[in-house]
Fold this sequence. Notes:
This is Dinitrogenase iron-molybdenum cofactor. By secondary structure, this protein is an alpha/beta fold. It has one domain (2-110): 2-Layer Sandwich (Nucleotidyltransferase, domain 5). Helices cover 21% and strands 31% of the residues. The strands form two sheets. Strands 1, 2, 3, 4, 5 and 7 form a six-stranded mixed sheet that branches. Strands 6-8 form a two-stranded parallel sheet. A hairpin with a 2-residue loop joins strand 1 (2-9) and strand 2. Helix 1 runs parallel beside helix 2 (68-76).
Amino acid sequence: MMKIAVASMGNMVAGHFGHCENFNIYESTNGSITKVQSIPNPGHKPGYLPNFLGDMNVEVIIAGGMGGGAVEIFNERNIEVIVGAEGDAKDAAVRYLRGELKSTGSICHEHEYADECGEHQSQK
């Protein structure tokens, strides 16, 4: 079994990890999603969310953009980070399971410009 978390605004991938409304958590077995749950964002505090999700045994986090500090904590906990995703959250999880969703590596370095995090151009 694998757990994939998608930082979301309802059922859509959120542009910025820390400012999402909720996390859609998808459990998959043999490449198929077997369970879905939505958890409200418990609050954006530095370093809190990556550990919150890690403690839930999440193995992959999918988001539109993410700050470098969060990426570092996910890396320390061996949680795969996929950024640059957009569209339907469940679709993003399914595409990940099929090996079709790759991270663009767009990391948001300046929190003063958090509004622009969703504006990163995909690297072709």
